[in-house]
Amino acid sequence: MSTDPGEIFLDMPATSPRYIRVREGEIVQEGDVRSRDERELESASLRKWKIEEIGSKTVVGSNTETGARREWDRESLEQRLGIGSFSTDLTNFERVSVTEAGTEENDDRPPVVTVIVYGNNGKKFIQRYRLLEDGDDTDERRLDLYEPDRKTEAFDDELRERFVRSVELALRGEGYAV
């Protein structure tokens, strides 16, 4: 957990790998994006706040409907984000895990690379790639996406570009090319 002014950063344990990051100017809302769908979270009874200021002890937000200001104890807000009574909008993907399977000599399955992308709102996205045999003499191993995460289809263009950039950067770092 970070106590830096300007952002809230929660790093969840390895048993449930996820992270939550909220920066000034972003939205915090009642409800858990990990267990509710978009329609449920659009309920008029669930309030949303634009985060105006994140200090080391307090967080100030303004209600997106009424403009009314609210101040939280930072630790209390962090706990509520961590347990899911509050959520934040998906704006970025800073963590990506790349795992290759099926490359052992006694494994009959074709090699597969699984990419898990963690969003700043605690959600995760999983895509699978096949290793291609292209015969190039390059150090990069070529991949083909064969199992995309359908949840990414709802991303707007800007968010999709951030997602693709995060995945490609992680894959390149592991010696793959898409």
Largest sheet: 5 strands, antiparallel
Task: Give the number of helices.
Answer: 3
Helical coverage, percent range: 10-25%
- In what range is the share of β-strand residues? 35-45%
Going by helix content, strand content and strand pairing, the class is alpha+beta
Q: Which radius of gyration do the C-alpha atoms yield?
A: 19 Å
> SSE order, as H and E?
EEEHEEEHEEEEEHE
Q: Overview of this structure, please?
A:
The mean pLDDT is 86. The strands form three sheets. This protein has a five-stranded antiparallel beta sheet, covered by helices on one side. A five-stranded mixed beta sheet has the order 8-9-10-11-12, with helices on one face. A hairpin with a 7-residue loop joins strand 1 and strand 2. It has helices at residues 38-41, 74-83, 157-173; strands spanning 7-11, 19-23, 27-30, 48-54, 58-63, 69-73, 86-88, 93-101, 112-119, 124-131, 141-147, 176-177. 17% of the residues lie in helices and 39% in strands. The protein is built from three helices and twelve strands; from the N terminus they run βββαβββαβββββαβ. By secondary structure, the protein is of the alpha+beta class. The protein is elongated and about 60 Å long.
